[in-house]
């Protein structure tokens, strides 16, 4: 599948005796938008948490940037897993300022990412007063502040209205042109089909399909056949 920025080989994750992820192998081409699809509870979030180092795999291997995954790779990876963690009593700028100081990044970068996610005019508005879409975009801005090569987004359109979904779609589609590879999970097939170049379908903790698709292709029939096949 071309030049890979990240590869997972036979990933497993046990919670006690329960096997949540079972031998999942992913191939993420550099410069692509990869959609990790599956029903709720299929193992998507657990897989992404392993890729970002939030939890340790019970087995398997992750190859990042051509070498075995190490914590230092996190400086090249941005992520938004579940809901963004924001300080509601601070502005968008102030939230980002905390991250630049923790990471030793110039404050000038804040203006760049705020413009990129269309939040540069929020001024003194506290994030507690932001809409869900604005909070999601700020979460993505935080993920982008370190200029990552790989961006991992877990259900980024959750809770958004149609306008927010369209704005986020346009933003995500712009990332490969900026040299950012994207992995996103979702169960909203119609939305994913307008964004991704490659998909992996997880069902019951196992990867049942992986391949390239055409942008805008109707993937519902493929998805349903793969998921139903896994339940037989």
TrEMBL record:
Residues 6-229 form the ABC transporter domain. Keywords: ATP-binding, Nucleotide-binding, Transport. The keyword Nucleotide-binding applies. GO terms for molecular function: ATP binding. The keyword Magnesium does not apply. Pfam families: ABC_tran (PF00005). InterPro entries: AAA+_ATPase, ABC_Gallidermin_ATP-bd, ABC_transporter-like_ATP-bd. Belongs to the ABC transporter superfamily. This is Lantibiotic protection ABC transporter ATP-binding protein. It comes from Crassaminicella indica. The lineage of its organism: Bacteria, Bacillati, Bacillota, Clostridia, Eubacteriales.
């Amino acid at each position: 599948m071309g030049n890979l920025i990240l590869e997972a080989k036979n990933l497993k994750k046990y919670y006690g005796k329960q096997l949540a992820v079972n031998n999942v192998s992913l191939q993420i081409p550099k410069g692509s938008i990869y959609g990790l699809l599956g029903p709720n509870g299929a193992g998507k979030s657990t897989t992404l948490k392993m890729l970002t180092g939030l939890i340790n795999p019970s087995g398997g291997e992750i190859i990042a940037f051509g070498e075995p995954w190490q914590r230092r790779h996190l400086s090249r990876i941005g992520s938004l897993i579940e809901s963004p963690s924001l300080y509601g009593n601070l502005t968008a700028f102030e939230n980002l300022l905390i991250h630049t100081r923790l990471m030793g990044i110039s404050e000038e970068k804040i203006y760049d990412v705020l413009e990129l996610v269309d939040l540069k005019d929020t001024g003194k508005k506290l994030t507690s007063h932001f809409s869900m879409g604005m909070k999601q975009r700020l979460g993505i801005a935080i993920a982008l502040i370190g200029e990552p090569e790989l961006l991992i987004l877990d259900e980024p359109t959750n809770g958004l209205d149609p306008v927010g979904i369209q704005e986020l779609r346009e933003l995500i589609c712009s990332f490969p042109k900026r040299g950012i590879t994207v992995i996103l999970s979702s169960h909203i097939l119609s939305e994913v089909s307008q964004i991704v170049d490659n998909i992996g379908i997880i069902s019951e903790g196992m990867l049942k399909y992986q391949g390239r698709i055409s942008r805008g292709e109707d993937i519902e029939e493929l998805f349903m056949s793969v998921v139903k096949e896994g339940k037989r």
